[in-house]
Amino acid sequence: MSNEARIAETLAAIDAASDADAVEAIRIETLGKQGWISAALKSLGAMPPEERAKAAPAIQAMRQQVADAIAAKKGDLDEAALEASLASETLDLSLPAPETPKGSVHPVSQVMDELAEIFADMGFAVAAGPEIEDDWHNFTALNMPESHPARAMHDTFYFPDTAPEGGRMLLRTHTSPVQVRTMMSQGAPVRIIAPGRVYRSDSDATHTPMFHQIEGLVIDRGIHLGHLKWTLETFLKAFFERQDIVLRLRPSYFPFTEPSVEVDVGFALENGKRVLGGSGDEPGHGWMELLGSGMVNRRVIEMTGLDPDEWQGFAFGVGVDRLAMLKYGMDDLRAFFDGDVRWLRHYGFSPFDQPTLSAGVGARA
Ligand code: 2U9
Q1: What is the pLDDT of residues 221-248, one digit of tens each?
Q2: Which end of the chain, N or C, is surrounded by fewer C-beta atoms within 10 Å?
Q3: Distance 278 CA to ligand 1 centre (A)
């Protein structure tokens, strides 16, 4: 068969092809590696130059003609397929949209964000430190030398490794070593809060081996109990979003503070529930222990390398989980760490609901 006849046959076959597979089969037969047009092009190489110059244009034209026809046919088939699918597919706008899974903010994170916002307004920075601590930063620097009885109250989880300076490594029992580290690295004055995970070997309905604390520390010249009381009052009023929060300071003992002060808040009993606000001495009211605090013990100030005759300070500590329970009404501490998404769906907060002082720091339902 002459090349002209073969081309006519090929073009007719392309025209008649009903799908992309048929077009592809023709492409392989003609322009593919073993295709007859490719073979004709290759045979040009074996011809003497004069003969090649004569034969080449016709073969090139054939190749172009077939390639153009294949491209055009593919375009036609694609367009026909699109039209067919547009004609057959329908979009039912009345169907419910598929639900996108939504994340939520854990109450502990929410409360920590609220506290950071409140204390930032009073000029406190947020400080962080390691959860695996050494004996010295967790106990000794806080006036709890080895064999101090308060170490037993802070019983924790110890590691077999020894600390670089000797002593043992342990899971921190409070965030106080963060303040020790900050005092030692930045010197005075200091105004920080240290929120984070802490560990004690304790486990029952109201104690979990891991819980969250926030501690605050102010070191400056001329700091006294009045600064402590004002700071705690301002913080608790902003956090519970009530101006009628009343504090009662009771003498207490902590090795790291002297004097030490336990802080109670007044509450009223409403339908059997404790509602914070008002003095605890009023009829039907009571006092609830909420946080511990005190003036930083001068031995602790000395231990961090500062002169206690020049620098004084106050510190406080409070459980974040407990603050969350009081504000948002959860009654079982263990549920905080069960990882049950149903609990989170109930108590979790929207990530778009950022605590701000101007709008009130609390999350809105
Ligand atoms: C430095 C100096 C002093 C931190 C303080 C408390 C009192 C306290 C408890 C509250 C409930 C722990 O979560 S809780 O069990 N904390 O009572 N914490 S004063 O004192 C410091 C910290 C760091 C350098």
Answers
A1: 999 999 999 999 999 999 999 999 999 9
A2: C
A3: 25
Q: Which strand ranges, in their side-by-side order, compose the sheet holding 132-134?
A: 132-134, 168-171, 158-162
At 178, the pLDDT band (50, 70, 90 cuts) reads very high
Q: What DSSP letter does each residue of 226-268 carry, written as one string?
A: HHHHHHHHHHHHHHHT-TTB-EEEEEEEETTEEEEEEEEEEEE
Pick from 122, 294, 301: nearest CA to 225: 294
What's at 255, amino acid-wise? P
Closest C-alpha to 335, from 322, 326, 327, 344: 344
Distance between CA 168 and CA 151 in Å, rounded? Answer: 13
Using the mean position of ligand 1's atoms as its centre, give its distance from the Cα of residue 90 in Å.
65
Cα 315 to middle of ligand 1, angstroms = 7
Ligand 1 contacts CB of residue 178 (under 6 A): no
- Ligand 1 site, residue 333, Cβ cutoff 6 A: no
Q: Ligand 1, atom 21: nearest CA belongs to which residue?
A: 315
Residue 153 above 80 pLDDT? no
Phi first, then psi, for residue 290 (nearest 5°) are: -120, -45
Between 73 and 4, the more confident residue is 73
- Mean per-residue pLDDT, 98-116: 92
